[in-house]
Amino acid sequence: MNGGSERISGDPGAGITVSPYRILSIAALLGMVCVVLSTWVALHQPWLGVDLRLDEGQPGVVVEGVHEGSPADLILTPGDAIISIRSTSGFPYTFETADLVEDPDVFPTFREYNLFLERQEIVAGILREPVVELNLADGRKIRLQPAAARPWSSMPLESWLLNAMGVTIFLISAAVWSVRRRNTAVRMFLFSGVGLLITGTSLAIIVSKEIAFDPVLTWTLREIYHAGNNIFAVFGLGLLFHYPTFLGTFPFTRVVAVLVSSFALNEHFQWMDLPLHTTLVQPVLYFMIAVSVSALQWRRSEGRPVERAALKWFLLSCLGFIGFGIFIYFVPAVFMGRTMVPITVWLGSITLTYVGLALGILRYRLFDIDRWWFEFWLWFLAGVSVLLLDGILAFTIVSDPSIALVLALVMVGWFYFPARQWVWGRLYRRQENRLERHLPALLAGLVGALNVKDKAWIRALREVFLPLSHRNLEDRIEGPRLENHGEIMLVPTLDGTGKIELHFADRGSRLFSPRDVKLAKTLYDVARNTEDRLTVYNRGVDEERERIMRDLHDEVGGRLLSLVHSSKTPRVTLLARNALKALRDIIYSINPEEEVTIEEALAAWRYEYFQRCEDAGVVLHWESGTINSLQLLTSRQLVNLSRVLFEASTNAFVHALPNNIWVSWDGDDRKLVAIVRNDGRIPQQGSFIFGKGIRNMERRMGELGGWCSWEALPDEGVFEVRLSLPVADDY
Questions:
Q1: Per-residue pLDDT tens digits for 305-320
Q2: Would the pTM count as exceeding 0.70?
C-alpha cells in the first residue's frame, strides 16, 4: 500500500534520533498539561453548587442536585424550580430554555447565538456579585453567596470523559507518528489528533458550565473548540486522500483548508448565515466529502485484495463511527434545532474511530506498522498507569507519597498486568498453542518414512499459521520471508530445494507479520536440526544393516547352500532349502529400499498358497476385488504380511483339516484388506486358544499399523481371519 506521497522504504526510523518512548512521553505530558489547564479554567468559575435541568412542566430551571458543602447546600433541594436570578441591587433575570444548552453551536443563526451571549453576560454579571437572590416558583426568595471556584470533585463526569477522549485520540495519533515520522499520511493523522485534543479539552470546560460563563470566555472557548474541529477536518480529509492510496497530485488538502478557513472566517466575523444551519451544516458537508474521497479509494483498490481488506477496516473505522456520530448528533441539531444526545456521544464516536484504527494496525498493519506497536503501547500504558494512580492516591486518599507509590504499583500489578497478559494471550496464545500441539506431530513425521517428511512439514505450517492456501514452488530460498506486504510468507522446503508459499494467515483474517517469520524460522530450524541428526543416525543404521546383510549372505547363506548341495537325504535337503529361503526373506526384509507392487505381492502369495494347498490336498479359492494393484509395499510390509498369511494357512491345516480355503482381497488407496476362510473343524466362538502363532500375527500387523481378527462362523461352517493393512503414504 502507498502510505502517502512519501512512500516508506527501508528503515522508517533511519535518521531519526528521538525514540518513540520519548515522543509518546512528551505527548502524554502535553496532553496532561491541556487537561490541567482545562480543569483549572473550569474550576475557577462562580459556583452555586447546583445541577440544573429543564422541565417542560415547570417554569424556569429545575434543581436536579445540590453538592454537599456548596453555597446552596441545605438551602435548595432537588425539585426546586428557579424562576429568576438577580443581584441584591439589580433587576431580576428570568431564565429561558436556551440558557442551559450544552453546546452553543446549536443556535442556527448568528443572531440567536449573539442573543445567547447577551443573556450569558447578564447572568455572569449577576454571579460575580457577592450575593445573589434566587426567586423560586413556590414564592420563596433565597440569597446565596457564589463561590469563586468549585472543588474538583464537583466537576461533571462529561467533562472528565471529554478530557480523556481528547487525550486518548492524541496519544494514539502520536504513537503512530512516533514510529512512522516520514510518512505524509501519518503526519496528517497526528495533526488530526492534535485538533481533537484541542476540541476535547475546550469542550470539557464548556460542558462544566453551571448556569453561565462570562461571554468573552464562552466566545473564546467556542473559537478554540472550532479551531480544533477545523484542524481535524482539514487533516482528517487529507488523510483519506493520502491513505491507503495516494489519489493524485491535486492539492486536495489545500483546497479543503481554504474551504474550512472560509467557514472559520465567516463565523469569526459573522458575515452571513448559511442555509439550514450556520455552524452545524459544516460537519455534514465534510462527511459528504469524506464519503466521495472514500469512493475513489475504493475504486483504486479494485483487484488488489490486500489494499481492499485494509481499506475496508480503515473506512469502517473512519466513516462508520463518525457517520454514526453525525447522524445522531448533528443531523437532529440541523433539522430540529436541538441535539438528541450529549456531545460526549459525538466525541466518543470519534474516539472509537481512532481505537478502531489502532486495532487495524494490529490486524492489517495499517500505515505499514506491525504488531509490536501494540506491545509498545501496552508497556507505555503500564508506566502511565503507575504515575496516574500514584498522583490520584497522593492527592486524595493517602497522605504519605511513598505509601501512595507502593499502592499504585500493587494496583497496577494486580489489575493492569493481568489484563495486559489476557489481551496479549488472546493475540498470540492461540498461535503458540498450535505450535505446542503440532510440533510433536512434525517431529513424529520427520522420523517416519522419507516421503512423509515434506508432508509433515507442510502440515505443521498449515496448522500453526492457518493459511488461506498454500502451494509448492521450485525456487530455492535461504529462510522464511514476507512478500506483498505480508500477504505471502515464503518458507523453504525441508530439503532446501524449493519453497512453500503461504497465503494470508489465520484463514485469511490477517496478514503475515515479522513475528510469523520469526516463528517459522524457529520451526524450520527445529525441523532441520532434527532431520540432520536423523540423517546421521540413519546413515549409521544403514552401514550396520549392510554389514549384517553382507555377513548373513556371505557366511550363513553360503554355508546353507553348501548344505543343500552336499546333503544325502531329501529331508535334510528340504530343511536346508527352507532355511535358505527364510534367510533370503530376512535379508530382503531388512533392506528398506526394496519395494514391490501389490500386484507382484499377490502373485507371489497366490503361488505360495497354491503350492501349500496342493501339498495338503485342499482346494484354494482365490479372489481379488477392487485393489490399487500399483500401490507399493515396503519390504517390511511384504515380509510381515507374508508371515501372517502363511501362519493363517498353517493354523487351518493343523487345527481344522479343511477341504477348502478361501482367500479374498479388497481395499483402496489407504488400506489393503485380506479375508482368509477355511472349512473343516470349526471351534465354538470363544473356545479357541490364542497361542504364540496368533500373537505373532497380532504383533506383526501391529508393527505395520494394521490389525487382524478371528471369528468362528458355525452357521456358515467356516473360520475367518480378517487382516487390514494401511498402505497410504502418510502411514
A1: 666 777 777 787 778 8
A2: no
